[in-house]
Amino acid sequence: MKKFLIEFPEILFIALRAMRANKLRSVLTTLGIIIGIVAVTTMSTAIVGLREAFISSISSFGSDVLYVDKFPWFAMGNWNQYRNRKDITFEQYEKLRSILKNYEAMAPSKSTFGAGVKRKDKSVQATLVFGTTEDYQKTGNVNPAEGRFLNDLDVKSGRRVCIVGKDIVDELFPRENPLNQYIKINNVPMQVIGVLEKQGSGMMGAFSLDGQVIMPLKTFETVISNRHQRLRIDIKIGDVSKLADAKEEIISAMRVIRKVPLNKPDDFAINQQEALKDMYDKTIGIVALAGIVITALSLFVGAIGIMNIMFVSVTERTREIGIRKAIGAKTWSILFQFLTEAAILCIMGGIIGLIISFPLSLVINQFLPTAMPLDIVFISLLISALVGVISGFLPAWKASKLNPVDSLRYE
Amino acid sequence: MNIINIEHIAKIYQVGSEEVHALRDVSLKIDKNEYVAIMGPSGSGKSTLMNMLGCLDTPTKGIYDFKGNNVSQMNDNELAAIRNKEIGFVFQTFNLLARSNALHNVELPLIYAGVSSSERKERARLALEQVGLSDRIHHKPNELSGGQRQRVSIARALVTKPSIILADEPTGNLDTKTGEDIMALFNDIYELGNTIILVTHEEYIAEHAARIIRLRDGLIEKDEMVTKRYVPKKNGASKV
């Protein structure tokens, strides 16, 4: 160990000097690693960002909330089998509410994508419109930053009031307080009673939660759509560990309510956020993995470049190796000397690669809610050192095994 | 006390399907503070014997005993340790590291011996002073003359205080005058009590030694003491 500590500065010095002596060659070789690291880090930043964006865009679905719906969110197989199912009705919701015991909040909801929202000469497109009850504040985890949420009275009497997202406020009330002002949704005047807190970009503008409008269910049925719009029942359980039990309970209750015969399958579905994540990981996850593998190939090409140049370096310095061995360098000294050289080449490539990919990650951040994760920085440095050691190993091994007699004679 | 004790060593190379007997049966002993020249025409096994003596190679048959250590059985790393501690090499082509200055070249064996940086520098400086190069320690080999390069390599051989100094045609790449200076330096080193083994094919160089071993066809042809040893004049260049 002591010998190693004494030799190490020499080893480092030799490696740096060899690289200085062949500047252009070192730069070109490193370029392979730089490109590899930039590709891998940028790709993984984008992938992490994509997932973050997805998670944040499904964050309106609570992890402890079950959604009773006519369709499963991800229908595998034949869609036809779901089409003939009967809609879930408000009456079924009321029955479920009276039967079920262990839940924190339950809200029926109807929703639609997109609706025109106007005020005076300004107009904006709402991304999502919900018709629901006061319990939706808990099931949907929505909190008004200003004003208030729906209350019992709003819901029961179907008042024309609404809570709107931040984007809509910014568009329609640039310099005014929106509270208690009127906007027109589908040309029906509605009073703004609350403004939701800003959610952030989400994945795509079309589903941005900052563009949503929430109103009482009855109001929704008159203003937005007809009574036949399908109803969903959102049930907040309040405890993720009780989710499975609650699901069983809901299924049996719903079977009774909807009078499903014993020998028939459920004619409704219980959805949950987890399923969305699973679905994401199953589909996008595979694409992401393929992306990482493909970009990792460029790193592999870089590694081959390193290996190639290290073989050249060993051949060029055969005589030097012979001299060192003749005067007492042991096998591991020579092995380590060349491994160090390869590792330094790669680590430098890694560092330069990170310096390049950092601004790139800022560019990605314009589209996806992500920054270059710190662990990617460490992992890529580790990978580049590892690439150096692995690709340098064969050449270094060859050097360390050279016969001093022959290598001293090498011209 | 014998430093080197060789008994019936042979070295056989396999060249294609043919066996080449570079050394057939060689036995010799070398004492402390001997000055031995090994001579022989090319193909006599001179270089093979030198590689053997320098622990750069191991014999196919026979026993090589170096200060009580059986070198014939050693692995690469043990050989490297022996070379590092016990043997100082001086080559015909100097074999200095081209990109390192004189001081670093002389330091090199001490690095592999695990000597600390400050002690290394001190000892290397001292060795360069011994060979008369204290004003050239920061010069690189290409900034030095042939004679000066050979002095650097002699300093490198001396710096570990080895048991033997093994010089392979040390004047082969030098003009007569410079060669004479180098031989004078070897004489000084010998007179200080060092053991020198000199491999050469020049009779007049061999006559600097006290004993000449002549090889032919892988066998010792003659092993005799020199009756009238040539002692070069001190030229003042060295401060040994």
CATH class of chain B: Alpha Beta
Poorly predicted parts of chain B: none
Which structural class fits the helix and strand makeup of chain A?
A: alpha+beta
Helical segment count of chain A: 14
What name does the CATH topology of chain B carry?
Rossmann fold
> What is the number of beta strands of chain A?
10
Description:
The complex is a heterodimer of chains A (411) and B (240). By secondary structure, chain A is α+β, with helices and mostly antiparallel strands. Chain A folds into two domains: 2-56 and 279-409, no CATH class; 65-272, no CATH class. Chain A has helices spanning 2-21, 23-57, 80-83, 90-99, 136-139, 152-157, 166-172, 217-223, 243-257, 273-316, 318-326, 331-365, 374-400, 404-409, and strands at 65-69, 105-119, 122-132, 144-147, 161-164, 182-185, 188-196, 212-216, 232-236, 269-272. Chain A has a six-stranded mixed beta barrel with strand order 2-3-8-5-7-6. The radius of gyration of chain A is 32 Å and the shape is elongated. Chain A starts with a helix and ends with a helix. The mean pLDDT of chain A is 86. Chain B is α/β, with parallel strands linked by helices and 240 residues long. Chain B has one domain: P-loop containing nucleotide triphosphate hydrolases (Rossmann fold, 3-Layer(aba) Sandwich), CATH 3.40.50. Chain B is 32% helix and 28% strand. Chain B is built from seven helices and ten strands. Chain B has helices at residues 46-53, 76-86, 102-113, 117-130, 146-158, 176-191, 203-206, and strands spanning 2-15, 18-31, 35-39, 61-66, 69-70, 87-90, 164-168, 195-199, 211-216, 219-225. Chain B has a six-stranded mixed sheet with strand order 6-7-8-3-9-10, sandwiched between helices. A four-stranded antiparallel sheet of chain B has the order 2-1-4-5, with helices on one face. The relative contact order of chain B is 0.19. The A-B interface holds A 2-3, 6-7, 9-10, 17, 21, 319-320, 322-333, 403-405, 408 and B 51, 54, 56-57, 76-77, 80-81, 83-85, 89, 91, 95-97, 99, 108-109, 111-117, 156.
